TrEMBL record:
Single GO term (MF): sequence-specific DNA binding
Domain of life: Bacteria
Organism of derivation: Sphingobium fluviale
Record-linked Pfam families: DUF1153 (PF06627)
Entry protein name: DUF1153 domain-containing protein
InterPro entries, A to Z: DUF1153, Trp_repressor/repl_initiator, WH-like_DNA-bd_sf
């Protein structure tokens, strides 16, 4: 029975090394997404604080949008989340994959 219950951590390590809790995450309904806020949501999902579905519902994100944030963090870290640098980091990643 216990295996079927969802066990979630009370806090996870945030993108800057600080503890993240549900209360410290960006407010539901956030519309201005700066790099730090995106990274906090990705860290919360990766750490098990939120599921992908919960994050998408809480922040009115599409699955594709959240997946893009996750890919950007995986490929280039927090700088990859900067909207103005997406194309730059994408081309660096593609070149790296070729070699």
């Amino acid at each position: 029975m216990i295996e079927n219950q969802k066990i979630r951590p009370a806090q996870v390590v945030g993108p800057l090394g600080e503890p993240l809790t549900l209360a410290s995450l960006p407010a539901p309904g956030t519309t201005r997404w700066v790099v730090r806020r995106k990274a906090e949501v990705v860290a919360a999902v990766n750490g098990g604080l939120l599921s992908v579905d919960e994050a998408c519902e809480r922040y009115s994100l599409t699955l594709e949008e959240f997946a893009g944030w996750q890919r950007a963090v995986d490929r280039a870290g927090m700088p990859g989340l900067r909207v103005t640098r997406i194309q730059h980091y994408k081309s660096l990643y593609e070149r790296h994959q070729r070699y």
